[in-house]
Amino acid sequence: MEEYEIKFLEVDVPALEKKLLEIGAEKVGEYNYKRAIFDYPDWRLDKDHSWIRLRTDGKETTLTYKKRLGTTSSDGQTSDEGMQEIETGVDSYQKTYDLLTSIGLIIKREQENKRVRYQKGDAVFDIDFWPQIPPYLEVESNSLEEVKTAATELGFDPEKGFIFSAKQVYKRYGFDENDYSSMTFDGFVKK
Fold first, then answer.
1. pLDDT in tens for each of the 191 residues of the chain?
2. Which of 30, 46, 153, 169 is the most buried (most CB within 10 A)?
3. How far is CA 24 from CA 17, 20, 45, 121, in A?
4. Where are the beta strands (DSSP E) in 106-186?
5. b/e per residue 57-66 (b: at least 16 CB within 10 A)
6. What's the chain's Rg over C-alpha atoms?
């Protein structure tokens, strides 16, 4: 399945939350995520602009394969054409972590982020907070056209947004995720 989303960087969170309520979006929840990113020892997923993500908010845990589509520039300036995503729920973060490492996958990086989610119809508005970079908005829906419509209703110009992974957002702020084994609110640990 293809994921349709556009990111808008450096948002004013209080003003954005006010606008979300004004357009009729409802607050769905707040989440504190921890994740581990996996690859093979030869980095074949990284070379293919893809990765395996294990993520939990303490209540729900998902295992996801993600692959950047199209341009796949890692400069933090050029948007991709989209993202392929295959996701499934799993029962246990630790057991899945152990399973993945026992079959030979290695940990590329462990990370944390916080998210505040709003929704209006099929449009999902995620305000993301990642360590050491400004908050950003991610607008997601069932098609790129629906994403653009939702972003426009909120007052954003879709042409000024980015079709990026979090890795590319970090690159815009001078951080190469591949340099770190851990990126949490407690600090970053270099490899």
1. 677 999 999 999 999 999 999 999 999 999 999 999 999 999 999 899 899 999 999 899 999 999 877 655 555 555 556 678 899 999 999 999 999 999 999 999 999 999 999 999 999 999 999 999 999 999 999 999 999 999 999 999 999 999 888 888 999 999 999 899 999 999 999 99
2. 169
3. 11, 7, 40, 9
4. 106-120, 123-129, 136-141, 180-184
5. beeebbbeeb
6. 16
d(CA 89, CA 55): 10
Cα within 13 Å of Cα(191), Cβ side: 10
What's the residue count for the chain? Answer: 191
CATH number at residue 82: 2.40.320.10
Q: How many domains does the chain have?
A: 1
Domain that holds residue 82: 2-190
